[in-house]
Fold each of these.
Amino acid sequence: MIARNKASLDLNGAKIFKAMLDEDAQKSLVMTLRDVVAQAPFFHPVTRSGKQMSVQMTSAGRLGWVSDRRGYRYEARHPDGAPWPDIPKAVRDVWRSVSDVEREPDCCLINFYREGAKMGMHQDRDEGDYSYPVVSISLGDDALFRIGGPERRGRTQSTWLQSGDVLVMGGAARLAYHGVDRLRFGSSGLLKDHGRINLTLRVVDTS
Ligand code: SIN
Ligand code: MN
């Protein structure tokens, strides 16, 4: 079940819907994601400077996010050349209930955190129109999520995102710096070998 309650937490303007997906919804989403990942396998993006990210990624949707020596961008195809699979309906349902916009997302970025993986502070700013929010769904192990403001040096706040939580970065929080400091590896039994999956939904192409 996807609970359609009000946001239960506000973190520097980002809204958090705690436990929006119950255990059955989380399990069924993981099964669906297995099919997506079978079509579009996880890969380790590298930064422009050639540094490998600790998080593995893939995407679903019309466009997927990639990073390599040419930099960050959205592409219509997986690095292996195939188009990205469709965004699963259950994921689009979450978008529809929290985003407050009519438009469907173009991209569902799928991040996979194994033990020790983290994500440095960054803004999501490769999209065409920042009036659309970014919606994030957490599955698996707890993650210490940190969010600041639109300036890199701003004051930050942290919270543990848990499996089934949904976070919305919109309005003033759309360009907030954010990242994941660490996982509580093994804290959730949802994924067979533990770790964490994070889905982020984005409207990319508004041309
Ligand atoms: C991201 O910023 O792409 C991911 C955030 C998260 O894993 O919670
Ligand atoms: Mn991000």
Note: Residues 122, 124, 178 surround manganese (II) ion (ligand 2) (CB under 6 Å).
Amino acid sequence: MTAPVPLIAGNWKMNGLRASLVEAAAIAEGAAGSPARVAICPPAVLIHQMSEMLAGSGVLVGGQDVHWEDAGAFTGDVSAQMLADVGAKLVILGHSERRSGHRETDEIVARKVAAALRAGLEPIVCVGETLEERNAGQASPVVTDQVRGSLPAALTGQPFSVAYEPVWAIGSGLTPSTAEIEEMHQAIRATLAERFGPAAQAVPILYGGSVKPSNAAEILHAAQVGGALVGGASLKAADFLAIVRALQA
Ligand code: PGA
């Protein structure tokens, strides 16, 4: 089983107005020819315009969340079908800011993953331990439980990725050591193998949490790391492109 094509995805979170689309255009121009799949996940209201702008560029556009139902009386929510309808190809699900700020449990994340699959979106399923959990020696069991609980039965061969994002590394400037990243990615790979057998080797396992131009090469070349989920450093084309290029460093 060959290694997956790396995926480098930018998570703009609740940042960006229409004026920020120039950054996406610059990312598309600079990422041309990259051996990685490159994606930008902007706020939902920018997806339509961005996906039209980037059509044919090779850079994919994704969402940051969906409701678990396809349609209905859910004021303020956006469905997976709606994201796909305006051009999204991927969607980040179970980000720790959703798990903690919106009380999303593994069960909710799994339902959202199932909704994304029904709409033909490729889910990026996020997992990660808190600092308390890491300090208590629980990082690996916490994260592997999240992996087991967040992948629905409906996931049977469709493309998806897992993003390992330690909560304490997100937006903090702190990152685990390369050995710690490798250990966690190996544990996630083994958990995926329990469920998918040899096909688990084809699932990209991304690292996320304070990835920046200065640490990207080391992280992206760590064993079992199949790409990156990048927050703050994805907002500026120059920084994001430096991370994309670090894959070939
Ligand atoms: P960060 O965010 O790169 O700003 O730490 C990563 C993420 O939350 O996906």
Note: The two ends are 24 Å apart (CA to CA).
Amino acid sequence: MTMDIPVLQSYLADQWFGREPLDVLLDASSGVAAASTHAEKPDFAAGLHHARRQGVHGLLALDFQERAQRLKQLSKHLSEHKEELYAWSTHTGATRADGWIDIEGGIATLSAYASLGSNELPSGNVLHEGPVVSLGRKGHFVGSHILVPREGVAVHIDAFNFPIWGLLEKFAPSFLAGMPCIAKPATSTSYLTWALVRRMLQWGGLPVGSLQLVIGSTGDLLDRLDGQDIVTFTGSAATAAKLRANPNLLSRGVPFNAEADSLNSAILAPDVKPEDAEFELFAEEIVREMRVKAGQKCTAIRRIMVPRRQLEALSQRLREKLSKIVVGDPRSSDVQMGPLASKAQQADVLAQLQRLRKDCATVYDGGEHPFAPGAHAQTGAFVGPTLLLCERPSEVAEIHDVEVFGPVSTLLPYDDMDEALELAARGQGSLVATIATRDAATASHAVRRAAVHHGRVLILDAQAAQESTGHGAPLPMLKHGGPGRAGGGEELGGLRAVTHYLQRTAVQGSPSMVAAVVGEYIRGAARIESDVHPFRRHFEELQIGESLLTHRRTVTEADIVAFGGISGDYFYMHFDEIAARQSPFGQRIAHGYFVLSAAAGLFVSPAPGPVLANYGLDTLRFIKPVRIGDTIRARLTCKRKTDRRKTDAQGRGQGVVTWDVEVRNQDEDLVASYDILTLVAKRNAD
Ligand code: NAP
């Protein structure tokens, strides 16, 4: 065959390779060849070696903050070039709206992880996971936990349905964590991931070896992994089960995170009537989940639990909506639903649909659904939206077991809410359930039970609907994954996703040693005291452990009265002698916020200097009361420095400094303890 289509190349050991075409990948609508895989076998040993050497080295030459910055720059770069990805995306059958979820959803995930890294991760490559626990009586021996980047490779195996988002949602946390990755997209839509990886590499900001790509088979890749590596998988439960059982992964204890298929549910609660807004919202959510990506979403609603008395009304509402979906070639702007990603998928969906039809009635028949002009079932992978009804869902096992990965959903009538929840649980572990209800007590009861079997639960009501991101959208800040059949993985979820790629280790030692390891001041560790007030030092000059012990201040009744006047806080504990005497403290005490304010007065260095702003307190505890006549003083110690590489409006560099504050009384008892967060200017522009 003469080929004027690109041969998709793998990228391993810093080289694109593969010239000989192997499998031809077809456009989902027209059936015309779009690209082909390559025939040459990759050298996975070389790819792994490259990642473990150059990749790890290059990534760890940066710290968490710098990697977060690169992610931000990368998301900007991809945004600027997104149209070339959209062009490839239409081959998968995706409409512009479908492509938006995959492409812009993926880019937004990069950006979300960039912000997360910038806000929550330290400078350096050691993440301290407190608290510090005292392991001896005198404070000479403490323990804590650190998380450090694994010195291996993350192999990211993805399903065909989200070729961009699927890689980016895995790449972002692993890159942030400092692990190089080898991306293995599903073959049928690998041209889109190939286009993405080319664009990512062309950007030029990724350390050498941090991203590699495999087109086609993984060969012996998994057999070559070791305990520092990690595999993340998205795909069918059957493939997950097979890969998880790889003898090498098992014997070497290679972590395996799986997001697999799932028979997600939507439950219309008994309190919702056809005239309620929630009824319409529920119907819209179902139709959207059938239409978007032609139902090829791991989170799509496969089973719809409906109160038996509302079955007819809901069926009617759904029929009306489904009949209006315009199915056709996604290049046409009025098309709302494209074909499935490939003819193989079409054959699979039609075969699985036949299995369900044996025990189900048809409420809306996709076989009768008209296609827009130019869309042909013979050349393209079109399947019309299909709604089934299973009258006795507790008796039909297949309805809870067969995932038809297309625009197909089934109505399951129920008699009471507990029955609906039991039906949802028959999915043996799902990614997500939606519960539409107007009643908080129903939500509270149902969510507690549904949570056991789901990774995420959306409560749908009219208020949430005003801003809801919908049933089907995994979000980078919330967990994406599910128990049991859904794989048991936790692909997303803010910092949790990053920590998958970090090794957690307990560290024991003296406070000074543990402080040196975690890169933070720990109480009991050596401090640095000098004549220079720490607030007079610029960010670069300040050292962790630099400390100031303030002068003292005796707290008087006048202080309490004055503070009550300024704040308007006349709480009895400060102003009612009789009530205070009957309280556990036995006498009037100073306001906790007065103690805070007085401590600030003790440690502040008032003249203009490098400290630009105080923007908050963390971990505040009032530990002992401060009584009239008590004498307090504060100790301020530089605890943590985070360089977010930020500049102010004048272009001056600045960093975040966290200060440990201890306020003690005349008996050296701790009365207040907290962290202060400040922005501190750099001497030199960054
Ligand atoms: P799949 O057939 O299980 O394939 C998933 C991935 O595994 C593909 O990249 C595939 O590559 C690869 N793979 C298959 N056998 C392999 C082997 N022996 N060694 C290494 N890699 C292997 O799934 P799919 O058809 O692509 O995707 C559809 C399924 O994914 C649906 O069931 C859906 O529910 C599920 N899914 C789940 C999620 C989630 O987050 N939970 C998200 C999306 C999709 P090849 O393509 O080269 O075979």
Note: The chain is about 30% helix and 25% strand.
Amino acid sequence: MATPNTKHIVTTTLAFAAPAIVALAVLVAIGALAIGPAIVAAVAVLLAIAAFAARPVGRLQELQQRIDAMVSGGRVTSPDGASEALTDPGGGAIGDVTAAFQRFERNWHRDRKALTDGLGAAATLFDALPDPLVTLDRQSRLVYANAAARALLAEGRPEDDIRGRDLSAVLRQPLVLEAVSEVQAGAATRAVEFTFADRVDQTFEARVETIGGTEVSDNDAFALLLLRDVTAQRQSEQSRADFVANVSHELRTPLTSLIGFIETLRDTAKEDPAARDRFLALMATQSDRMARLVDDLLSLSRIEMNEHTPPDEAVDLRHVIGTVTDLLAPQARQRNITIDTQLDPVTGPIAGDADELVQLFQNLIENAIKYAHEGTTVRIVAERASETATISIIDQGDGIASEHLARLTERFYRIDTARSRELGGTGLGLAIVKHIVNRHRGDLAITSTEGEGSTFAVTLQYAAPPIIAADETKAASAD
Ligand code: ADP
């Protein structure tokens, strides 16, 4: 129980003793009681009331302390800082009030803990969100910012540091601020896109929504601002649109020629067998080009579809490359190109898909034959490593300027489109190579020296771990 406050005891004693003292004074006034005994009686009354008042005053004071502690959001603590247990409520009217208060206090602490735990869990959850999230009051000041928002807008400063700051001070984006104003003016939702001045290649979408609730005071959260990095999405939409435009363009060109030739055949070349033969040959070239393009598109889409499932066949790389070089031998002969193959360092089968590996090496070796200078040698060289095999296709051609290297595997990226078309290229060969390498969890490295030639090095993984020599195994079991 709290130590009774003297002032309260005095005032309570005086208040309770007042009627008795008045009665004694009246008795003295009418001569029924002598002043001496009256004073003694008054002192006795005061002492008795003071003695009786001490306990109820102490109990009421304890209640007051507990209520004060609740108001300031904590618990009554003992001098050593531990939270103090409730005392026996006692009897009487004050006892009933104390017991009722104790029940209320217990529930209040339980509800408060549930609320604090819930808020803590919500904060952890919001902090785990990858997207920046901010709540704003009616004056566009920050009420809450999750970890992603603090990292993006306030260099990761703690929440207390940024609470109350104006949104325009941390996000100088006129479009977003305008959207927030519109929501404050009554709009339910607004979504805008923006880029940061120092990160122009990153696009964000900002979504502003009212949180709702009619009794929102000036400092309460009123609107929610959610930022989402939509760079990858926009890039993929753009590349899809570019891809469709490129495919249409690539098909359109031979198609236009075909339509032109058909018209000519129907018209001027109708009666001219020599012209007809010439046009039919040109038409065959154009339709071959269209067929190659469609074949490459189908290959690309098939490989992309399987890209997430690594192939699990054990493939003999020498056999694959042998098949490809046999296939391309006539083409190489036409350009007087020698193919020099050194695959001895390859020690075992490769984990892969045989058809895809044929396609991969066919595209690379065919490019080397196409882009090398006439009469030179294309070398196919293997390098030894414990878990991987690296096959380099080295040509002696014009080489590739360094600014093109990073983009060579993009679909339809060609250094010289006219030359590529003239050589029967679709612009998809290296994109197919890149996707096959990705599916095989391998690597493609392109290096080139202008005027000397280029090297396309493919690294692939062996199907099985390196074989331990038989005597090593015996030695291990003997141990
Ligand atoms: P293409 O069908 O045009 O050959 P690829 O995707 O196979 O398409 O190659 C893309 C471009 O990369 C080619 O157009 C060419 O400009 C360049 N390229 C590919 N291989 C070589 C090489 N060995 N030497 C020089 N340039 C090459």
Note: The pocket of adenosine-5'-diphosphate is lined by residues 363, 367-368, 371, 395, 397, 400, 408, 414-416, 420, 425-431, 454 (CB under 6 Å).
